[in-house]
Protein 1
Amino acid sequence: MSRLARREARTGYLLLAPSLLGVGLFLILPVFVVLSLSLQQWNLISPARWVGLDNFRSILSDPDVRNSVLVTSLFVLIVIPVQTVLGLAAALLLNRRLPGSNLFRVVYVIPWICAPLTLGVVWRWIFDPSDGALNALLGQRIEWLSSTTLALPAVAAVAVWSQVGYVTLFFLAGLNAIPAELYEAARMDGADGRRVFWHLTLPLLRPTTFFVLVTGVISSFQVFDTVYAMTRGGPAGRTDVIAARIYHEAFEAFRLGRAAALAVLLFVLLVVVTLAQQLYFRRRITYDLS
Amino acid sequence: MRHGRRLFVAATAALALAASGCAIGGDQSDRSDSGKTVVTFRLWDDQVAKAYEQSFAAFEKDNPTIDVQVDVIPWNDYWTKLTADVSSGNVSDIFWTNTSNFGIYADNGNLIDIDKELGDQKNAWKKSVVDLYTRDGKLWGVPQLWDSIALFYNKKLVKEAGVDPAALRWDPDVKNDTFLLAAKKLTLDFTGNSADQPRFKPVKIRQYGFNAALDSQAIVWDFVGSNGGTWQEGDEFAVNNPKTQQATQYVVDLINKHHVAPSAADTNENGDKSRDLFVQGKMAMFQSGPYNLKNIQENADFEWGLAPMLEGPAGRVGVVHGVAAVGSAKTKHLDETVKVLSWLGSAEGQRLIAEGGYAFPGVTAAEKGFVDYWSKQGVDLKPFQQAAEGTTFPAPVGPRVNAGATAMDPIMKEIFLGRTPVVKGLADAEKAGNDAIKE
């Protein structure tokens, strides 16, 4: 390596140092802390004790944990298709550049910019059984957040509402990257709008779709703030997502070891789900537009 | 593997979630600029904090080498942050605690032994609060304030319905019950029919009679106590017994069968719902503690009064709950900390809390100031004082009682929503609570 190259490398690392330090301190280190905590029993106050795989054994046989895995999966299954389809639809509409598109582009993203906890509190007011805006509008009393059937869909609806703008933004960018000549060529060959969408737009958006799905699934599996603000995991555990259970174990029950074991479980779940998504998309052709 | 890296980052973020709550604030300096010794004091109530600030100003005048710093942490984060800070050794020298939270610290040697350091001041303090903070024969906290339970009532509404709020008695045996009829008379549907009339429709209620709800301190434990039931034996939960079942059933029926109280769908997640209804004139009787005096005084634009808490088959047995200041055993300035604790346990130190109308002070000699403040506002606090002197019901204690209570909570909510039968629910709650207090 020449002296110049070495000096450049040094400058490069120097510039990287602040963010590397951040990643190391707040991402990499906590990962190892959590891994080691998952093998201990600790209540934050008394000294911690090594317990081997006991925490994993106890969470895997815990019906509440099974419930929270089920609830989280249901939540993801509701949120992901709805937000992806709605996001794509909104992007297609905005892409037509009708008057006012720019305004709506901003409006859609506002909920995504706001803090989920605040939104959760606002939505709890809207869903309030007696004084809530929604019931006032409907003219009847529906106990949204204490109903065992409606609570999860209600929370999922809020999650979709807050994330759809983010999905829309990515699809918009994806649509912009498709060269206009392709559309012209398709039209010249006599393809109607539906055929263009299914055979041109959708396949060319595949990388965007992949990205949106992977990040969406991950963030939905980790959902916490919205749930915490709206239902705290209730009623009767029907919205008790994994992250809410981790919080409960760590900071309400003060069983840090079990909480860490749960976090590891969530991690493994996410790796499996993401690998499955990747396999699915890899089997399909991605077009190089560059 | 273009997305491999992104996946790794996102997945590690999932793991980091568990650790992120542990973030801990920076170190506080031990010495202020002027070279004084800094003693830190943490509490959750920003109102009472104002009274403390003034009180410490007087203390610092007499003790020019000590600087007391008051730090308010809001209730919602208080216990999480406190546990994290005690764990990391960053806790303040003195902090407020309640009865359900001090046990774990006392048992783990985190607290200063008050008997040893300030035992001679003990007789000046409210005995019931001293008892609450005595664990294994030792006192761990300096009583700061206490609450008992009484019945707030809307003067106009009870007068119109012909109800005497001071003479109400509930009883699972209908023959001995005078309360239910009164509560029904005070509950009106949207056309104005009261709940004791056959035409009453419980769909749209415009005025409620009473605040039956999952409010442990002001409703549940008091009904259980007034029926001779138990909630805890030693550190274990003991809610699965006939008397407790009977009392809980009575309260749940007030909500779901008689409709004299708002639905649990309204009150389970919103602890202030009933107080808000009372303040808006939409609830006639509201059983609660002195912690709601200021809010009601400031917001209710009608005449209201205080009556003794409801009488049950076993008499009037209410919860007396106290807040104490405890000292951290790990403090670097034991002498100064003990001095501040001693001030916090003196009549002069608590005078402003009492005279400002904030709370019943833990020092009995300062109590008159609080009573006088409220009598000047036209409110007679005798019902609270009587409740504290009579038979009282112990709030749950133990090193892991909070973990137990949070495990019981979802089940209790289902009971109050009327979806889980009381007997089964209490059995489940007891089991869940006792499983949770084991580690």
Note: DSSP finds 13 helices and two strands in chain A.
Protein 2
Amino acid sequence: MPGKVRKTSGNKLTAMMIVHNEADRYLKDVLEHLTAFVDQIVILDDASTDDTPEICASYQKVILCRNEESLFFKHEARLRAQLWELMAAAEPDWILTVDADEIFEDRMQNEVKCLINQCDFDGVEFRMFDFWKSTTHYRVDGLWNPWPRFSLLLARYFPEIEYTWPDRSFHSGRWPMFYRGRGIISFQSDIRVKHYGWARGEEHKEKYRAYKAADPEGKYSSREHLESVLAPQNTVKLEEWIEIKTPPF
Amino acid sequence: MVAKGKVGILTTNYYNPDGNRIIYGGAERYGLELTKLLLELEYEVAWWQVGTGWQKEMLPGVPLYSIPETGDNFQTCPRLNQSFYEQAVQVDFAIYFVTFLAYPQVLEKSISISHGIFWDYPSFDAVIPTEELRRERLRRLWLAFNGPRKIVSVDTATIQWATTTWPGLWHKFEYIPNFVDLNLFSPSEQERKDGKIRVLFPRRLTSVRGINEAARAAEILTKKYDNLEFHFVGRAHDDNLEKEMVRWSAKHPNIYYYWKAPQDMPHVYQNVDIVLIPSKSTEGTSLSCLEAMAAGCAVITSYVGGLPNLIIDDYNGLLIRPTAANLTAAIEELAFNHDLRKRLGQKAREVAANFGLEKWKRSWAKVIGEVFK
């Protein structure tokens, strides 16, 4: 594991994100939110046909690149690799990978510097809460349960590594292989992430169809989990989101 | 640079056995500092623990291997010990991170560590319920104590128990109390003027650490006083308890629950007045207690394990029997006696100076030099 890039101060944090037709969803909230605590936001627009690129470009910290043809459901790994190259060109010390519908608790703004300006760990994992048909309740049955599940969203960037991606057209993951498997040394944070990707019930059927079409045989993700998107309401377990007080110091 | 040799360290859990959840306790932080020291002393280091066969790094360049042996009996893990013995064939020296892991066999040049008496909790009697079983447990402990060349004990309580039970063992023990980085943990230079009295419970949320008593005291006192604020800072052993803590703290305006990266803890201590270390059992010389002392906080703790090695009652902290009522009374006494808090905090800082990280490293380096040659 390379060590010379670790430093306890002055680390530059770059967020990276793939967007596609996000203008009427949560994009502005996410960009406002990120602007408060990251140094740069590298965005790869996957051929949006709405105002997404214009919205992105209106934020000072954004570095935007646009694709003419959408790749997400054709070969996601290629798209991820492309975003990775753009991010690398911005020369970050740390990378935050987010989607255009994910928002950290406010504590992140106060604590992110402490999470990155240290040499003891190279990644930070967070619990992600999938809001379900509302912005007040999240889903907890089956694989949706956020409590036992931590996801790597923040990690140190090592410029000398030759990064590779799995040869997967769909569900290729946000991180290159170096960050997976044996993995990097990571810290599990209690700062929660709100995921609004499923907050609009009217989008569920369309999203289900798109995911099923991209992976009809359940090759890249759990079929059971995908089917649970359309599960009868009485089998879906929800918990109410409870705001946690931000420590006063 | 050629390493002086390879040190294999066997522990039970640095991560949970499934490899997904890091344990953030004092013993794990001890493990990190010990590893850093060994690297400074130019040894190569590798760790082993219980697990499903996964492999990780615990520090850059320091592998952590897992051994798929989960069985334990009489509070020993002979299969884990055996697998380590076979797998560690390429190591020159061994450290058994917990004393009982040194049963039944050890590498020739080895050290074990006692982090404190761990069999002083009330339900222990039910774990080893008959005289015959207790005899077998003692027999195994005797073998585990005898195997390594040295046993580093973080407190005097363990040494006293062992040498009272088996007087011949006294030469095995080295008392090296736990440490605090005095540069990182120091009192705040500014006195807070927000009118709040902040009470901190900086421990893992387990019964033996007194979480239930501390939570009860917090409920009673926040109901009684508006200017008292409680901060529970630490992880639980399972996700459900963490969820419950989130819900519980949300119901009480002056009770907070969160955890922080270790690097952020000095800042937490600098912003609180009173620190609770109300351990009921399985305690050594608590790192949290030392950190609170170094930060000049007024500490309320218990006469359990090695805590009296750190705190003299009414001199540099308060020593209590950790019931909810006693804890509530002690917090109340300190919360409304500024002078007492200040005096205990100042003395705590002075005493903490004797437990600095550098001194701990020198003591450990001496033992390592004697055994690993």
Note: Chain A has a mean pLDDT of 94.
Protein 3
Amino acid sequence: MSDIEAPDAEGGVVKKFMFVNRKSPHGTVYAVESLEVVLISAAFDQDVSLAFLDDGVFQIVKQQDTSGLGIKNFSPAYRALGDFEITKLYVEQEALDERGLTADDLMEIMYEDEDDDYEEKPSVRVVGRGELSKLMSEQDVLLSF
Amino acid sequence: MKFGILVTEGPYQHQASDTAYQFTKAALEKGHEIFRVFFYNDGVNNGTRLMVPPQDDRNLQKNWTELAEEHQLDLVVCVAAAQRRGVLDASEAKRAGKDADNIAPGFRISGLGQLVEAGIIADRLMVFGD
């Protein structure tokens, strides 16, 4: 990762980055290559969040098994996002509803809140379409995959 | 305004690269600054000099290369995405033990940090994808 500039090389600018995940985890490369950018972005000390909508909600469904596909199961990496201080994963309620999913079908993705005695808290927040739209409008940088 | 450009789809398969090129060209003509054009996902295939489209069609790689020469554009191809898809410069080819490289003039290969940096520095990061 020698190409990465020091995080404060830009004079300590912190922008709101949201990664918008719209596609199912397998079948196309978008999900895993989105995750690669997310992990790199953690090195830049930015205000990073992820949104899962449309078929993107399948990316964080629990108990994924890709053995029949011959493709690596990268879903455990989402559970490590907390270690990179990426703690805001928004999931669109309507996208879950439309696919017969509930919050219980999603992986348990937690982070340790350093401002609250390192208490374990859930990173996933299920939000309605209207609230997600509002969150998007507050971002500086939206990357859609 | 200072723009960053992200291209996430391959040439000819998808309109994204054409639209990104037209946008970049128009923005430069209007006096805007392009901080960087970053190629990711299948977008890295825009950076192979081995594409040979029919003569009566546009040559997307040439378009980018010529625009880069004219305006000193920074065209960056993601190294991880490029390696998967066989887009290599001379040093990557050597490192991987391949007998050839194919990166086009005006393009360079670097990491995803360059994309995040473009998001931080540019006033607007424009995403051209599916």
Note: The two ends of chain B are 25 Å apart (CA to CA).
